[in-house]
Design goal:
Layout (H helix, E strand, L loop, with lengths): L1 H22 L3 H9 L3 E6 L9 E5 L2 H12 L4 E3 L9 E6 L2 E9 L3 E6 L3 E4 L2 H12 L6 E2 L13
Antiparallel strand pairs: 1-2, 1-4, 2-8, 3-7, 4-5, 5-6, 6-7
Length: 156
């Protein structure tokens, strides 16, 4: 009986955690987190050639506000995670580091990681508007700088 009660308590705890995590994806909560960003980095990947990868850095508060407004403009319906990879990606940084990283998938889905994690259906109209906002910055992208790693000296 004791084990059954413990199992029920643990199961209930998992349910509460899941509900809380889904609740944190409310559009306005998500948008408020985006608005905290001081810097946005848009990573434009090329077709497999790391030397062609470029990043655009955005610090314009109006641009960040537009991004937040698009996310807040409708529901974020949680969806099962798919294994697709998409480009460009957007990383939003606040005073304490990474807030969110997201990509757009399947012409209607937003994948988020960081302080809010999950895949969410946002609809084609918002997907396209967010993608257009990101792609408009591609002209400002610069070659990605990858830090050089010193090779360990060979021992003789």
């Amino acid at each position: 009986m004791r084990q059954l009660l413990l199992g029920l308590v643990l199961f209930a705890g998992i349910g509460l955690t899941r509900t809380f995590a889904e609740g944190s994806a409310e559009p306005e909560v998500f948008a408020a987190l985006i608005r905290q960003a001081k810097t946005a980095v848009i990573a434009f990947e090329s077709s497999g050639d790391p030397g062609e990868a470029r990043d655009a850095v955005v610090t314009d508060r109006a641009w960040i506000g537009q991004c937040a407004a698009l996310v807040a403009a409708g529901p974020l319906e949680p969806q099962p995670h798919c294994f697709c990879v998409s480009t460009p990606s957007l990383e939003l940084y606040g005073e304490d580091g990474l807030l969110l990283r997201f990509t757009l998938h399947h012409a209607s889905k937003l994948r988020s990681s960081g302080r809010i994690e999950g895949d969410f259906v946002i609809g084609q109209e918002r997907h396209d508007a967010l993608l257009a906002l990101l792609m408009a910055e591609q002209a400002n992208a610069r070659k990605r700088v990858v830090p050089q790693v010193k090779r360990a000296e060979k021992r003789r």
